[in-house]
Amino acid sequence: MKTSKEKVYDFLKLHSSTGGEGVATDQLAQALGIQRTNVSSILNGLVQDGKAEKMGGRPVLYRIRAQDAENDDAFSNLVGHDGSLKRAVQLAKAAVLYPGKSLNAFLYGQRGTGKSMLALLMHRFALESGALPANAPYVVFNCRDYTEDETLAQHELFGGETEGCFQRAARGVLFIDHADLMNARLRGMLCSYLENGDSDSASAEPFVIIACDEAARDACRDLEGKLPISIPLPLLSQRPLSERMTLIQRFLTLEAARANKVISISAELLRCLLLWDCSANVFELKSVIKLGCANAYVRERNAQSDTLTLYISDFGHAVRKGFLNYRKHRDEVENIIPSDYSYSFNETSMAMSAIDRDKLKYTSAYDDIDCKAKEFAARGFSDSEIGVLLSAELDTVFRRYREELNRRIVNREQLAKLVDTRVIELVGDLLEEAAARFSVQYPPSVYYGLCLHVHSAIQGHTKSYSLATGQIAEIVENNRAEHALSLLFASRVEKTFRVMLLAEDVALVTMFLCTRTIAEDTFKRPVILYVFHGTGVAAALAQTVNSLVKSENTFFYDIPFEQENDVTYAALREEIGRIDRGKGVIALYDMDFLREILNTVSFETGIEVRPVAFPITALGVEWSRRAVINEDAHSLHKSMLEEMANMWSPPGNAIITLCATGEGGAEQLKRYIEQNADIPNTRVIPLSVSDADLLREKLLVIMQNDFIECIVGAYDPELFGIPFIPVSEVLSAPPQKVTSVLRLKGREKGRIDFEEIYRYLAEQLEHVDMKKLRRQLPMVLEGINSIMELPLDTELGLMIHIACAINRLIAREPMPQNLYREQIIRQNSRDYRELMRLLHPLEKSFHVVFSDNELANIITIIRKL
User: Fold this and answer.
1) Same domain for 769 and 813?
2) Backbone dihedral angles phi then psi of residue 399, each to the nearest 5 degrees
3) Per-residue pLDDT at 409
4) 380 assigned to some structural domain
5) 351 and 248 part of one domain
6) What's the N-to-C CA distance of the chain in angstroms?
7) Who has greater pLDDT, 720 or 71?
8) I want to staple 108 with a disulfide (CB 3.0 to 4.6 A). Which of 214, 581, 697, 856 is the partner?
């Protein structure tokens, strides 16, 4: 096991390898989980040993000494030093080692190509080689900091009453970054200074390195002519994928060290990071990986695990689109990132492990892509057109919102249970008035959706559907009469509930009133879409089906074999949006990579797209090839039947146990089902997910090979139309009837059999005296119900949560942290005080103390925050 000193030293080396200028004591302490005083002592020891050096400023930064580098020279650790950056490194060394005095150098390239990193390495190399004295300073002048004040920039650079950068960097290195942001006058002064120098202190002039964005043509032309060495840096897209993979590995390794966790990532996501269009080059790649890891860390902050798993939903849409570039680089990507492995990163290295596909039941998104397809020159959309396709159009946002609302309601009786009767009356009056004024017969979905929207607005829960100011203005401009009626309605709501609706809420009410089509509600049904390669294959199938069934619910999209993936994606996105009737699209496809495209379209549009593999074209091509080499029909027929039997073997079955507050609840429920239910050939999969997009992603992976029979949990995620069974129905049923409940037969209602639950908890919670718990926990739950009447599922979930919390506290196990505890307690101070009072008997009896974190967690459960 490494000592603390070794951990600190390794972290300094890792940070140095990824372009960091230095690490502060606090950052090291937080990343490594070592007390700050110990880290400070270790750093000072490394400085005394000559292994690290201290840089002045606030905060003080530490880095590995250049002379202590384990490689041949400062550039040896630079990704691409012997590849795409080989020429740049040669020029950099030549500039440093020029006889007599280092030659000033000009670095140019697009944003994020590594100019600052190369300048820093040139300084380190100058120290290593003896071209500069051991104490030679490294001074940075960032032009970005002085764009608003030319006078200050001039004084800071050239000096005046105080020393300027040129004087402070004497006999060292002066790095002038973002020189393209200098105005022409200051740039001219710099060029003159570089050309003529300072005659009074020529021997003490610094080695000057200037970096410039090559897009600024005038600046580059002015500066390049005044510096003897010019070093161009390539775009990330111009560098080999193997180098980009090394960069990804280093960035993930650094984040693993900072989080003090092992980072786990799938081959598919790793490929997306390798292939997405990174406009800001290495800088953006590093920033996106840092942000993705931060999102995952926040999502799993309460998980008691040493592993941090990254999912595609932790990253933006741009990264998700990386798979569109797969066809262009298929062979290279397969060599760098084999699909049959999972990948993990710790603070020092990357590890690969073979995937057990029998357990995972998951295949790569690219394994069966058509390897023989002819490669054509890129002919995709422009960046601006892609941006338009990616942007969420207002109509799409509103339709998705309406569909989400409508999924919650099936009749007026159900609506009355969820919405205040005063809201129902107000909305009814509004639609009656609007129907008379605009001669429109509004369908039930508008009535239900508008009631739920207004209810959410009153409760303050509509933030996720915020509209931009320009969108609101467009709605008002195009629908003045409807908006005027919506404003009148908003005033009635304010008078009734003493709550003022936001401008965006009124705008959405206006859009509800603009609904003109009844057919979309009376004709809501799933549709079928054939997506096949080849000319007319999908069209022929769809037309044949429609002519026989007369339903006109089957559509097609034919893909030319030479068509690029980005064109296919854009066309399918448009076609699915056109044919969707509000109940989803079943898409039958032939090539495996189409599954990822269809899933992405579903994620971005909100339309339920369910891909089904139907590889007619691929099978036809393969069988045709075999017919050429087989001498008899018997052997060919046998192999064809075997392939079809394997391909259409029945899918597995799965039951999902779902918990939003931690893995423990889902795992406990899984074990209970496996112990008491007779469900052969069915996997029970526990999921602990509160983020809807991440849950959607995980369910899609499972559904690739398994049919999900139902979801069992405390809340219904309302995804893919999967049946939902409240956890109360499972746990309240006698053990012999659990199977019937899970098979959706004879659901039993009524209160929970708490005795059965206590018996089960007694088997699972080894540290809890169950007699005490049986006697005291019901009184606590009754007291909490007096604060707020809890639904049956919430009460049961709270019961199990408190019992498990007591067990962990007695065992002195780490408790989950709630990052929002202060805000939750402040906003629910009465609940907080009541809970302290109600839980006190449990604390006294079990000799435990419920912390503010735990009280905030309980408030989150009962208030469904």
Assistant:
1) yes
2) -65, -40
3) 53
4) no
5) yes
6) 42
7) 720
8) 214
CB 573 within 8 A of CB 515: no
Rounded to the nearest 5°, which phi and psi values hold at 43?
-60, -45
| d(C-alpha 447, C-alpha 424), whole Å | 9
**Does residue 202 sit in the same domain as residue 300?**
no
H-type helices in 337-468, by residue range? Answer: 357-360, 383-390, 394-406, 412-418, 421-438, 444-459
DSSP state of 302: T
Residues in the chain: 865
Q: Is residue 375 part of a domain?
A: no
339 alpha-carbon distance from chain centroid: 21
Average the pLDDT over 678-697 and give the result.
81
474/547 same-domain check: no
- Could you tell me if 593 and 697 lie in one domain? no
Q: Domain for residue 12, yes or no?
A: yes
Neighbours of 664 (CB within 10 A): 20
The per-residue pLDDT for range 746-797, each reduced to its tens digit, is 343 344 566 777 777 787 788 888 888 888 888 888 788 767 666 666 777 7
Hey, what are 164's tokens?
């300027």
CB neighbours of residue 746 within 10 Å: 9
Same domain for 251 and 312?
yes
> Which string of DSSP letters, residue by residue, matches 660-699?
SS-HHHHHHHHHHHHHH---TTEEEEEEE---HHHHHHHH
Rounded Cα–Cα distance for residues 702 and 180 (Å): 51
456, 491, 520 — which closes off a domain?
520
CB 77 within 8 A of CB 17: yes
Range of the domain at 668: 652-742
3-state secondary structure of 55: strand
- Judge whether 155 lies within some domain: yes
Which residues have C-beta within 8 Å of that of residue 50, sequence separation ≥ 6?
65, 67, 68
* Number of structural domains in the chain: 7
Give the other-Cβ count within 10 Å of 781's Cβ. 18
Asked whether the bond before 526 is cis by omega within 30 degrees of 0, the reply is: no
Are the C-beta atoms of residues 703 and 689 closer than 8 Å to each other?
no
Contact of 506 with 487, CB cutoff 8 Å: yes
Mean pLDDT computed over 19-29: 73
Distance in angstroms (rounded) separating the CA atoms of residues 274 and 284: 13
Among 614, 633, 665, the domain boundary falls at: 614
Tokens of 87: 């020429």
